[in-house]
TrEMBL record:
Name of protein: Short-chain dehydrogenase/reductase SDR
A GO cellular component annotation in the UniProt record: membrane
Class in the EC hierarchy, top level: oxidoreductase
Keywords: Oxidoreductase
Family: Belongs to the short-chain dehydrogenases/reductases (SDR) family.
Taxonomic lineage: Bacteria, Pseudomonadati, Pseudomonadota, Alphaproteobacteria, Hyphomicrobiales
One term of GO molecular function: oxidoreductase activity
Record EC number: 1.-.-.-
PANTHER family hit by this protein: DEHYDROGENASE/REDUCTASE SDR FAMILY MEMBER 7B, DEHYDROGENASE_REDUCTASE SDR FAMILY MEMBER 7B
Transport listed as a keyword: no
Length: 277
């Protein structure tokens, strides 16, 4: 079956987690390319501001409030797209949260919230989207994961676990979606310059801006690549590092982050961010 490449004339583009960061920049990029972009997040005011900012672009922004952790909300979002705005051609599941985890003070809530937003939140969007696209006979889906899903990193026990799960899920679904005419892609960014990453306490090589991330993703959506990665040098380095024997892997990560020399934290520090946040 021939690969489907979504274009504005095919229908609506849907982006979850669009109120800030990569999702917001990508919504503006796609609207500038002529798409009608349905944007979803919990913060209505930020989505309304995004809609106003796109008013002079060739495409447009459609505000559809919703919480990705609520499956019923996502069913309602998809129903609104289908019955009020048109066919869903392109879906980009981007909503995510990073909560740092320190083993000396493990908290159930950090894992529960991370899994609810980053993993179950994608599933809650994915199920109705695939059902809709299956009925149409075509569609394109992109899932935003992270290079931190390649292997364990300091403070990333919850975040990295969800991103590793997304990588495996996208890979596994591709076998059947290919036969259904639905093209699935995986987006694995490195570090993106956000307010959260500015508070990180370790080196962040090859930091890219929101706008650059949106450009890279937009270009990748038009390519035949399954995995969209950027910046390439850093992400390929991360792939290679994770091929090392564990003894070398842990030594290299400790050395590059300076983590072994850091004292144990009495309390996990909020607000730190990992790749793709």
């Amino acid at each position: 079956m021939q690969d489907f490449f979504a274009r504005p004339e095919h229908g609506i583009a849907w982006i979850s987690g669009a109120s800030s960061g990569i999702g917001r920049a990508l919504a503006l990029k796609l609207a500038g390319d002529g798409y009608k972009v349905a944007v979803t997040a919990r913060d209505h005011e930020k989505l309304a501001e995004l809609q106003a900012e796109a008013s002079d672009l060739s495409g447009s922004i459609i505000v559809l409030d919703g919480d990705v952790t609520n499956a019923e909300d996502m069913e309602h979002v998809l129903a609104s797209i289908e019955y009020e705005h048109g066919a869903l051609a392109l879906a980009i599941f981007n909503a995510g949260v990073y909560l740092p985890v320190h083993a000396e003070e493990l908290k159930l809530a950090d894992f529960e919230q991370s899994f609810a937003v980053n993993l179950q939140g994608v599933v809650n969007c994915l199920v109705p989207a695939v059902r809709h696209m299956k009925a149409k006979g075509h569609g394109q889906i992109a899932i935003v994961s992270s290079v931190s899903g390649y292997g364990g990193l300091p403070t990333s026990a919850a975040y990295g676990a969800t991103k590793a799960a997304l990588i495996n899920m996208a890979e596994s679904l591709k076998f059947d979606l290919d036969k259904m005419g639905i093209r699935i892609q995986l987006i694995n960014p490195g570090f993106v310059d956000t307010p959260g990453t500015k508070r990180n306490e370790f080196p962040m090589p090859s930091l890219v801006s929101f706008e650059e991330a949106a450009e890279q993703i937009s270009a990748g959506l038009k390519s035949r690549r399954f995995e969209i990665i950027f910046p390439k040098r850093f992400t390929y380095m991360m792939k290679l590092v994770n091929l090392l024997p564990y003894s070398l892997y842990f030594w290299l990560v400790n050395r590059s982050t300076g983590w072994r020399e850091r004292p144990l934290e009495k309390h996990a520090r909020p607000g730190m961010a990992h790749p793709a946040e």
